[in-house]
Amino acid sequence: MPAAPHKPKELAVLTWPLRSLWGRALKEAVSDPFTVRTGIAVRHIENVGVDYPTDFWAAFRSGGVPPVDVVYGNTVPALQCAQAGLCDPLDEDAFPILRVLHPRANAAWEGLRRWSVVAAYDIRYALMFRDAAFPDGPPRSWAVTLDPRFKGRVSLYPGGKGFFPVAQVMGGGRLEDIPERMEPCWSFLRELRSNVGAMGFNTQMTERVKAGGIDMFFTVLTNIRQWKADGCGVSWAVPKEGVSVADDSLHVPRGLPPERAYWAKQYVVHAMSKDSQRQWCHRIGACPMHPGIEPPPDLAGNPVYPDNPSDFRHGLFVPNRILAQYESTAWAAEFDRIMNS
């Protein structure tokens, strides 16, 4: 076996803000142990939201050395990078652990190079509700978001991120009709429009949640779980119609010097090891792609947490190949048109 190449002093990893649970969990469960194991420091470059910073896209496409060594974030923009040929794939022969992971971990679909993007875990959206607004118990259906009592008190992600499967079902449509027949989705969003107030991502919405300014929020379970633990007076519900399914991922951008690419891939493989996955996914309430890991104690048996990444009994699943093509472009544009009309 050839010797490992020279170690860089540090790797740069794009992540969500370190003040958020997302960023802290990556640092403490993945990056810090990686540094202990290899001696390579990890510098975290913080990003808010789902898409990558504009200057990062320009740097990735310029053909020069990328500004980061590893990208951690939502899988959809990662797959858009893969479609553009901007990812440096991992190889199963070099990294046999990839063969152990759940099939969803290989996020690349037919036509893309295998393991261009490594999905790290399955994460579910849920309906956050303010406990004081629901004294009789958790809401049972997404239909409650249409109640006139909640005008301006319902929140979504910008551009409708993640909500389209819910809106499609609530409008009387079928998931199988996405993306060809989306009118049920747009019809439900038109009904919901007057109740939608503030929109934003986790770090932007935390203060509103703490202040009690939101009665319902379609958001990722991780955020609700953290706000509940922080005493914000909120809980989550899994409405009878189901919740949207998502995943986040890791990838190595194309164009790194060989020695940096080697150690960046070592970081990804380290993150997908059983020990790392257990610590990391327990922190954020996600279902790991590495098999044989028990759920966090507070989520065991809860419908928001699947038995495995293929368990969609309570999940509204739309394949990433569809989301990568439509969600941040045509669907987001129609969402914005409806919300601003």
Features:
341 residues, alpha/beta, D-Maltodextrin-Binding Protein, domain 2, 2 domains, 10 helices
Task: Explain the layout of strands and helices.
Layout: E1 10-15, H1 21-38, E2 41-46, H2 54-62, E3 70-74, H3 75-83, E4 118-130, E5 154-156, H4 164-170, H5 183-192, E6 196-199, H6 202-210, E7 216-220, H7 221-229, E8 234-237, E9 243-251, H8 258-271, H9 274-284, E10 287-288, E11 315-316, H10 320-339
Parallel strand pairs: 1-2, 1-3, 5-6, 5-7, 9-11
Antiparallel strand pairs: 3-9, 4-7, 4-8, 4-9, 4-10
Helix pairs in contact: 1-9, 3-10, 4-5
Q: How would you characterize this protein structure?
A:
With 341 residues, this protein is α/β, with parallel strands linked by helices. It folds into 2 domains: 10-122 and 246-299, Periplasmic binding protein-like II (D-Maltodextrin-Binding Protein, domain 2); 126-242 and 314-339, Periplasmic binding protein-like II (D-Maltodextrin-Binding Protein, domain 2, 3-Layer(aba) Sandwich), CATH 3.40.190. The protein has 10 helices and 11 strands. It has helices at residues 21-38, 54-62, 75-83, 164-170, 183-192, 202-210, 221-229, 258-271, 274-284, 320-339; strands at residues 10-15, 41-46, 70-74, 118-130, 154-156, 196-199, 216-220, 234-237, 243-251, 287-288, 315-316. Strands 1, 2, 3, 4, 5, 6, 7, 8, 9, 10 and 11 form an 11-stranded mixed beta sheet that branches. Strand 1 (10-15), helix 1 (21-38) and strand 2 form a beta-alpha-beta unit. Helix 1 packs antiparallel against helix 9 and helix 4 packs across helix 5 (183-192). The longest helix has 20 residues, at 320-339. The protein is globular, with a radius of gyration of 20 Å. The relative contact order is 0.19.
